[in-house]
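Sharing a chain and its predicted structure for anyone who wants a worked example. Both blocks are below, sequence first, tokens second.
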Amino acid sequence: ANSIYLRPETAQGIFVNYLNVQKTGRMKLPFGIAQIGKAFRNEIVARQFIFRMREFEQMEMQFFVKPGEEMKWYEHWKETRIKWHKALGLGDEKYRFHDHDKLAHYANAAADIEFQFPFGFKELEGIHSRTDFDLSSHEKESGKKIRYYDNEAGESYVPYVVETSIGLDRMFLAVLSAAYSEETIKKDDGSTDSRVVLRIPPQLAPVKAAVLPLVRKDGLPEKAREIMNSLKFDFNCQYDEKDSIGKRYRRHDAIGTPFCLTIDHQTLEDNTVTLRYRDSMKQDRVPVDRLSEIIDGLVNFKNLLKKL
């Protein structure tokens, strides 16, 4: 009575509730249920920073399909998930599939998407065809039917399940390890400088843009605040006026801010700003009234998902 059991995966809660979701959502097969939550493993040695932990965040989807169609959907989700990872722009060469030769007792197919961490290729996400093992087991042990009625076929059956399972902590580690870079920069005068840059995909970057008045006088801070106020409801921006403009660029490179907006004396004349790109350090002169459109086109997750 004093024993407490911690779940090793989030999937089982989905299985016991799948019929409630199907009926209340009036859903037809195939459909999926996804969730994120805590999971726990009895790791003997937690290691490799946050790669392997006893308590972690797991993101899982259970995709319910008609028996006999599971392999078609298994291949579909393998392709879709690898496209999703590669769309982040961390480098296609950093991903590979590892197909399982030895399968778990509940699976008829399984593969891992592996990512090239600093310590080698390791599992980032798993795709599994779990057959009807989970639902059939719950039905057997509970004595309650949890079958799906197929109106078109005129029969009821236990669906098969294709699962995708990804560790959020591992995903976070993958992004950070791929994004972190130390660079040596050659200046126009022939001297060199160095910078730390965090090349986080713009869609994931916590701070989307930095608003930087060139100097703290001549009305530039007031104009910068005006621009900041026009952007802050659509994007997470930071206003920064401390130190030289070069130091501020380096500061935002280090935290992964993809774009810096520099307000200078020309801004007061023609209402344009300098848009600096974190990765290339390229600078463009753009009108203030187009800033929201330009930034949205570069950071909106919708544009990333369109690649799938």
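Comments welcome. Residues 200-305 form a domain with the Rossmann fold fold (CATH 3.40.50.800).
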